[in-house]
Amino acid sequence: MKALVYTGVETLAYRDFDDPKPDQGDTLVKIDSVGICGSDMHAYLGHDERRPAPLILGHEGAGITSDGRKVTINPLVTDPNSVASRSGRENLCPSRQIISMPPREGAFADYVAIPERNLVEVPDHVSLEQAALAEPIAVSWHAARLALAALHPADERRAHVIGGGAIGLAAALSLRAMGLTDVTLSEPNEVRAAYLRDTCDIRIDNNPASGITLIVDAVGYAATRAMASALVSPGGVIMHIGLGEADGGFDIRRITLQEITVIGTYTYTAQDFKDTCAAMFSGQLGALDWVETRPLSEGATAFADIRAGYVSAPKLILKP
Predict the structure, then answer these.
(1) Are residues 60 and 38 in contact, defined by beta-carbon separation less than 8 angstroms?
(2) 141-152 confidence digits (pLDDT tens)
(3) 116 occurs within a structural domain
């Protein structure tokens, strides 16, 4: 098969690669659409030791099974018998794996092998480009669910999202789908901000006032954590999704003295993924038209363009 292979820092090669060998219980999926994630960019830049070269990246995939079913892929492979999985918290399974991380190759390829239980069928009215958004939206759906559960009942239901990439946009859309009407987002890239405002009907506020009960950091740098610490109201909630860098930013003294809740979140549960798909398929998350598509064979240029800030759409999808 053909695959886009990460071969070294800022180097991707479109070349022949061994076909995946499905394990017992796996299904072979012919990939139609696969999104470029921030974690793929971290690997591309050499910032993720969990993804050593050579490796096929990509975990936001949708495609067709050998028996003709349209499916979207939950890329998180867990042990169904672990304590975490049996309690409905598969994302905390100690033996969790994800495609695009050894030992599982990713979906920037013609085919990927994945357990059958990780597939969700896609209805006819939903395109596979839209279906490929299930994974990043599920990350934000899970985060929104946890954040809203942590808010005090007396607190104003008001949220601000830091970062206008796919995860930030999906967080804003998920919060709105869950009943919040006052949701704003900050995005310093003016082209991206205009796209979000004009295409996705997102309220952009790059200078929000402090006193916001729920802050979502969808970037994860020291500067955005400092921003979240300053903006959140006493007794409020900071939901931290971004994995930009590991250290710095949180005002721990203010977080302690003002009894602010900080929640870290990783991926989603199996039920969150299914609930996300249901919300997408029913139209609760909007038109899902905030993507740009390119051929997988041009993936190296796509990565370079994202790094240079030339892509206005929150999600760039590659097509094998």
Answers:
(1) no
(2) 999 999 999 999
(3) yes
| Helices of type H across 151-189 | 166-177
Match 């038209």 to its residue by tokens: 289
The verdict on 113 and 179 lying in the same domain is no
Identify whether 205 is part of a domain. Answer: yes
Do residues 117 and 173 share a domain?
A: no
- pLDDT above 90: residue 6: yes
pLDDT bracket for residue 281 (50, 70, 90): very high
Residue-range definition of the domain harbouring residue 195: 137-264
| Model confidence, pTM | 0.96
For residue 170 the two structure tokens come to 């999906």
Q: How far apart are CA 215 and CA 172, in angstroms?
A: 11
Q: Extract the tokens encoding 221.
A: 């740098």
Q: Which amino acid is at 199?
A: T
Structure tokens at 38: 């921030």
Type of residue at 264: G
Quick one: tokens of 319?
């097509």
Using an 8 Å Cβ cutoff, are 121 and 280 in contact?
no
